Amino acid sequence: MQGAELKDLAYMQQTLDRTINPKRGTIYDATGKNILAISSTVETVTVNPGNIKKEDKEKVAKKLSELFELDYDTVLKRVTKRSSIETIVKKVDKEKTDELRKWMEENNILTGINIDEDTKRYYPNSNLASQVIGFCGSDNQGLDGIEAKYENDLKGEKGSIQRHTDARGGEIGEEGENYVPAVDGNDLVLTIDLNIQSIVEKYLEEACIDNKCTDGGNVIVMNPQNGDILAMATYPSYNLNEPYEPYTDELKQNWDNMSQQDKTTALQAVWRNKAIADTYEPGSVFKLITASAALEEGITDTDNEGEFCCTGGIEVAGVRIKCWRYYRPHGSESLRQALMNSCNPVFIGLGQKLGVETYYNYLEKFGLLKKTGIDLPGEAGSIFLAKDKVGPVELATISFGQRFEITPIQLVTAVSSIANGGTSIKPRVVKQIINSKTNEITDIPVEKDEKVISKETSEKVLSMMESVVSEGTGKNAKVAGYRIGGKTGTSEDGVNTNKYVTSFLGVAPIDNPQVVVLVTLYNPTGEGGHQGGGVAAPVGGQILSEVLPYLEVNKTGEGVEVVEEVQTPDVLGKSLAEAEKILKENGLEAVYEMDSEEIDKENTYVEEQTPKAGITVNKGSKVYLK
Question: Which candidate in 39, 84, 237, 284 is catalytic?
């Protein structure tokens, strides 16, 4: 009656399984050449206590504890335990296990100690794109970011070593071991470009430090034509190889005195991808949405001279809402001039003409009432008042970007619809999956949706954005020789917190947009103030000045200079003195974060360079060395 049940039970009792972990799939950047995450081969040591002779147990425990720097009593307990298998140590380098093999041979201990191949996750670029890539746990399972989202693709299938044993773990019969090989995980190719990510992280870190941004910042660079996220950076970042270690000098000093709860809170804060998981009031950048809706509905046009008049404020349902420049009103304006001046009353008036129903229809079309669906874990949704709760004052504040919250990724995605001619598009971070068995490549499809606005409206908004950068509040984002469009934003971070969020959204080149860049800085407290035009726009300009040449976007417009181009030489592994000489010979400048007076340049060597070797850049460009 219990035949099948007892047969299964007998098999479990009489068969010893040792697991073989598969090699987790490699994660590449958009080029398919730069490795962002890889699994290296290590080994795991286990013992079968029943197969170790009684007189050898203490000797075995002593050697294992010495070799792997473990507590002797704990190891002895495992070696003498009445169980079939005990794990001694995981993920150790082969040098150590080779030493153990030699010792076993010399001491004629041929059974009871098992050394099995295992894998360990390694991130060659340490902090690069840390909040996007994520990290793995001790059992090679993805815990955050891409590692967690694509766990089923990356993890592979476990193998095993099986053999028959008696109740004490001793071998039964002479069948030997049955080996079932592990199947390695699939590889991923991201849309993230290592060089663009490096450029973005460099300028984001500088901006957060120079402007004393107490709550950090983030930058997203997206291709509006296909939804590819070319870079997504959050500051501060952390070392993916040491995700549980303190990541700032202040934390390192206080770490030993902090409670476990405080440590966990600090770590979870830096693991968090603010670009997709945190909402904020976008401020004046949102005027692009209001302008697009008003143009599409035919309520206004870009250059009707004197159509609007700013008197320093506007009264809505008995409440006077001020323009940011209420003390010196903008006076007579066209829509273009209103966007250049970031004039609140004009956009409040447009919101009133659109009405709640129509305005919310556009919010839905632009994808602002739902998550983008980006392939990363932890995406937050927007926070808007329910449509039936929106009164005149609420509509007025929404129209110029306040009293609601969205995520940076939602804003970049919405403006990408304006940049690409009016089509809604879904952002993505992974573009290909490579099968580990067959090397077959599966392309992740580009997902486009409905038409949000017409191409004509798109071109009008882009034209006004170009004016914002050439003559308006975004002029600090200018890049010589390129047609850049943009919009600045400043908003309160919560009500009565005395904190601000400052931002800049850029589109380039205006005649054929290839990138949308959003810079968001949280609570800048430096001498430069907290206005988007003064703090965030320069960062956008710096990023575009390097990203556009890297993407080989041709220069157009006024101020174009004919500059000789060169390819970056390979200086990896060279001494700093030699690297400087090679770069100078090629007309390039070496930049590094060390006091040149204190460096022994002959005995200091280059570990990383940005841009990498073989990239075409303008003569006179800077090459950043680590």
Answer: 284
